[in-house]
Amino acid sequence: MADKRSGGRILVDNLVAQGCDRIFTVPGESFLAVLDALHDTPAIDLVVCRQEGGVAYMAEADGKLTGRPGIAFVTRGPGATNAAIGVHVAFQDSTPMILFVGDVARGDRDREGFQEVDFAAFFAPLAKWVGRIDDARRIPEFVARAWSTAMSGRPGPVVLALPEDMLRDEVETVDRPRVPRFCQAADPMAVGALMDLLKDAVAPVAIVGGAGWCAGASNHFREFAERIGIPVAVAFRRQDAIANDSPVYAGNLGYGPNPKLVDRIKAADLLLVAGPRLGEATTDGYTLITPDHPDQLLVHVHPDPEELGRVYRTDLPICADMFEFSELCSDWEEEVIDFSNGIEAHRDWLDWSTPKPSGARLDLASAVAAMRERLPADTIICNGAGNFSGWWHRFWHYGPCPSQLAPTNGSMGYGPPAAVAAALRCPQRQVVAVAGDGDFLMNGQEMATAVRYGANLLILVIDNGSYGTIRMHQEREYPERVVGTDLANPDFAALARAYGAWAETVERTEDFAPALDRALQEQGVKLLHLKTEVEQITAATTIAKIREKARR
């Protein structure tokens, strides 16, 4: 007969059984029994954050890096609602993640007690599954199911509510072994049909990244694409789907793509989409590739059958794990026609991604060029939402997967906490957080977490005194009628030093490279405060040009 254990102890034991080695949290009284169990569990590293948004972002980033669920613990009510944004990122980014929420006692439900929220209703649109464990004896069952659900098919977030009195119950139960990631093998007949379509194609293009994409899938697909010469574009913020030094890498879709790549997608007679959902950002509002895509054949490969045919008419749907599909393609023995457009597309991308001085006082394109000269190829770049990210999306050359952590749901405040998670998970790699001024102040307090846990990372704060993306749209729709987008900012370098980080302020292009060199010689958290001009609103245009175009 098994010994009796508290629900908190059973939960922690089953986290260990599933391979959990790190938890991100802001502690709450609703799960004290779990915290107590963690006191005697050296196998799990507990990372205590400063706000639940940072907790959820870090867990999501950790899931991206490992391919197994990132784990977050928050308390009920405010804790859960603060963490919701990270759950939404995990959902739209197809990232495995589990959010555990301490909840009111079972006998107090439905009274609108202190911080009570109906989590099933609240998280239902944001998660793959929302569960509640009312019986401590079923904790092993729920944890195993959560792990499997988060990883299988289209990966995503799971939310489990934990009544605080259930966690104190002393019961007997049997732990469950580690669950594997269940995946669908690629059907050789379907892949054979794809090869036949490629033989008849004249100008095919592949678009990759997304659900279930991993380093193995990246390597195998690169081998296949290079062998047949097909251009490989990547979905929005999936620029590490294959290493950018591949001779067939064609660049990224999303906001501000290379016009030549856009033309190539429009002219393609066959689109091989492996992993992406073809969402709004990747397809420019479902216009670059329309749901019916006349005159184009669409081969859509996705690990979740419910995604195939959901939005797009699909000529050849293939339900398969990305690694399994890519491996079968790379091992395909039959000859396939060689295409020359892959090399041409890569040449176009190299020209597009080569920084050209803008004349700005602090030219961000030149700053990215200096970073490319100094940082390792496997540097992990982390960013949230904002026009500032466009310089890195365009000019940075991403290395092997995973090397880009960026939310496809356009969530601000993601970069610094994601960088903390990356620095802790990959201490041997260079990690850089790139954040706008408005973006940074949404989760910049996680510098305290980074310093506490000895994270080694570089933060770049791009400060133009504005919510720049909204200012751009504002000028386009209502030129010169600026309201609600100007910001009054602190001295970010002084703020970083207050947290215990090394920091400098940079205001001119010629000062950036020397400051970067000094930062790279430091250990721990480094911050460069880059003071830019709002006039250079994106990597491609200025406010004056937007106003001129709006008046026509």
- Helix content range: 25-40%
- Broad CATH class of the largest domain: Alpha Beta
**What do we call the CATH homologous superfamily of the largest domain?**
Thiamin diphosphate (ThDP)-binding fold, Pyr/PP domains
- Per DSSP, the total helix count is 21
Strand content: 15-25%
List unreliable stretches of 5+ residues.
Answer: none
Number of domains: 3
| Terminal-residue CA separation | 81 Å
How does the overall form come out from the CA principal axes? globular
The total count of strands amounts to: 20
What name does the CATH topology of the largest domain carry? Answer: Rossmann fold
Outline of this structure?
The chain is of the alpha/beta class and 552 residues long.
